[in-house]
Every structure is written in C-alpha cells, then in structure tokens.
Amino acid sequence: MTGTIVVTGASRGIGAATARLLAARGFAVCVNYQSSEAAAAAVVEDIRQVGGAALAVQADIAREDQVQAMFQRVDRELGPLRGLVNNAADITPRADILSMSPDAFRRCLDVNVTGAFLCCREAVRRMSTALGGQGGAIVNLSSQAGTFGGMRITAYASSKAALNTFTIGLAREVGPLGIRVNAVSPGVVDTGQEDTRNPERLAAMTAGIALARLGRPDEVAEAIAWLLSDASSYVTGTILPVAGGR
Q: Which of 78, 112, 92 is nearest to 183 (CA)?
C-alpha cells in the first residue's frame, strides 16, 4: 500500500519516529503538531532530505474546524489518503481526584477521545470504498494504562480505555468499507519525557517489565507501520500491546 498517511502529534517521540519510518517506506506523510512548530519542521526536513514527501500542519485535534482544515490541506498538497495514525494525546500531570480540575479532566477526554473521533471521521470520508476511496487503515495509539489503570492518572487511563472500545466498534463499522482499524498499546516508552537519568526512578519504571527496560519510539513505530501495511491485511479490531511483557 502506498499513498498519504496523516500522523497526529508527530513532532516528537512515537509520532516523529512513526512519520520518519512511514516516509522511508514510501508514504507521503502529514506531520501534525499543535504547538511544536520547529520540531515538526525538523521532522519534515529529515524526510525531505532522504527524498520523501512530507508536510507539517498545525491543528488542535480537539477542534473540529482545525481537523477539517488539516485534512483539506492534505487533499490539496499530498494526495489521496490511505491511512491515519491517531498519536496526539493530552497527558495530564499526575493528580489525585481531589486535586484534578474538571477542565483538566475534560481536556484530556477532548483530545484523546473526541480528537481521535474527529480525525477518524475525516479519514473514513476519504478512504471509504463506498464513497469512492481506495480503502486504507487507521491505527490509534492507546496505552497499557487503558487496561491496567494507573496511580493518579485516572483521566488519561479512562481516555485510553475509551479509545480501545472505540477502535473495536469502528473496526466493525467500517470493515465493509475497505478500512481496517487497530490500536497499538505501548507500555512505558522512553520518549524523552520520562526522568530516565535517575537510577531509582528508572528502576521503578522498569519493575514488572519482562524485558527489564523501557521501550523505544522506533519499536512502537514498527508495530504501527505493520498494522498500516498489507502484511496485516486480515487484522482489524485488535489492540496490540507493545509493552515488553508488562
């Protein structure tokens, strides 16, 4: 499969690794970002330096108008859509229920669930074989927190549990339209946001992981790329853990 892939939250971490890998495999890539313009531009430049096609597009995926504008720009500048990676996420700071504000909880759900819905809706409109599209694949970025919960991250864990259920239901809905929908569920991944320089903190993060280390963004990107590829042509409605045996 070739064509264009939209990767949300692609300016750093798993999103950036995924954008680079997909470009290396021949896809044109929309590198979405919300505020990290320079980082998104650097990802695009990396892709173009090796002969790939990429475009950085700013959009808050919780905003319907901005999501629609992003996909319209992709239509004009990159060509037919064949895939979507819903990677952008709001990761609320750790807080117990007594100290978390309703606005913080709501924003997490708006980005992680409603944002994924808005992007999926635009992608389905373009990829549906019933509407003249060529079919395609969607990969949602979940988290093991959506299965196991987590200490003082109830908003984030709840949003990822909702995304898992959304993935399964949407897969059943759009399978007849030539679209596969899956999710990758990472464990603890070293995206540069974790304090891995502190030995005690690192030991706590790796406790209970069978492989006894953090994951890397490129390892998650490989799983995403496989789910987008024809090699996974009979896989849909699946939540794939990439968690080192956690």
A: 112
